[in-house]
Design brief:
The chain is mainly α and 308 residues long. Helices cover 78% and strands 0% of the residues. The radius of gyration is 20 Å and the shape is globular.
Length: 308
């Protein structure tokens, strides 16, 4: 039981602490002379980045399950390079061609006044997926070796660096452009990725050359995750970021509760415990996110309710 707690708690703490990223960025952009423009432009660009992140996020579970030796590690790297290459091509088209303005205007509903701020922010956020993919690869290896404390270490260093950068930006009045928010987010992702690569690469080097073969497959994440990220983007767009932190906190509390109950009353489920917990918790987080978002926007501006 203690080993399970020590394995899970760092991951739960990391998920909870990660929500502070958006609080830091919003705190900087809110000091802009036109906070509605800078925050909205950044939030819309981040929403698209979050959607593309759904192709990256399952790589962590895939790495944790299938990277057992140097051979499977190299196969995993090749698959990641392919996925990131496709996403990078799409990102380049969005960031540097008229396609981006058309997408944000007609699909995301951005007003003409928001298009410049949104596209400018995306020209920086387009690199987030590269660091996220590297982080997923090595965090999977870290999870496989039960060294999840490194995930907490990574997010703490990320928040510390972002805190210093935000203080410098506010001190130097670097708040009047959505690109500053994008730069903060990119820097935070790069820092967390660097920590994961530092420890994960050390572990990967100690893997055996080749074990009995097993296929590398891409695990498709539940369709629920994009909707949670979409709601998080809406929360930032409407300035109700606290709902993100509250939903993540609820996620952690319920996860710990279910894990304790299943391990205590039905330990024979073994590996199914994580799957059951994940499925129940993600549905709960989506429901809680919808509820909190609706309540928050109703209190702020009644007419925003139509956004859902």
């Amino acid at each position: 039981m203690l080993r399970l707690i020590l394995f899970y708690l760092p991951m739960g703490a990391s998920a909870l602490l990660a929500s502070l990223t958006h609080v830091i960025i919003s705190g900087v952009l809110a000091r802009s002379p036109h906070p509605d423009l800078t925050i909205s432009g950044y939030a819309l660009a981040l929403s698209l980045s979050f959607i593309l992140e759904q192709a990256i996020a399952p790589l962590r579970q895939t790495s944790a399950k299938y990277v057992k030796d140097q051979h499977s590690f190299r196969e995993m790297v090749r698959m990641i390079v392919t996925i990131v290459g496709i996403i990078a091509l799409f990102n380049a088209l969005i960031a540097w061609t008229p396609l981006g303005r058309l997408l944000f205007h007609y699909v995301f509903g951005a007003q003409d006044s928001l298009l410049d701020a949104t596209v400018n922010a995306y020209q920086i956020l387009m690199f987030v997926n590269v660091f996220s993919a590297a982080r997923s690869l090595y965090q999977g290896i870290i999870i496989q070796h039960l060294l999840t404390k490194w995930m907490t270490i990574g997010i703490l260093i990320r928040l510390f660096v972002m805190g210093l950068m935000s203080w410098a930006m506010v001190s130097w009045n670097l708040t009047n452009d959505s690109r500053y928010g994008a730069l903060l987010f990119l820097a935070g992702m790069a820092i967390e990725s660097a920590v994961a690569c530092f420890e994960g690469h050390s572990l990967a080097r100690r893997l055996p050359d080749k074990l009995p073969s097993h296929p590398i497959v891409l695990i498709i994440r539940s369709a629920v995750y994009p909707w949670i990220d979409y709601l998080n983007g809406l929360a930032m767009y409407h300035g109700v970021n606290k709902t993100i932190a509250y939903s993540k906190f609820g996620n952690v509390i319920l996860s710990v509760t279910i894990l304790f109950l299943l391990v205590d009353y039905n330990p024979g489920l073994n590996g199914l415990i994580a799957g059951i917990t994940s499925s129940v918790v993600i549905m709960f987080e989506l429901s809680l996110s919808v509820y909190l978002f609706r309540k928050a926007v109703q209190r702020k501006t009644p007419t925003i309710e139509a956004a859902l």
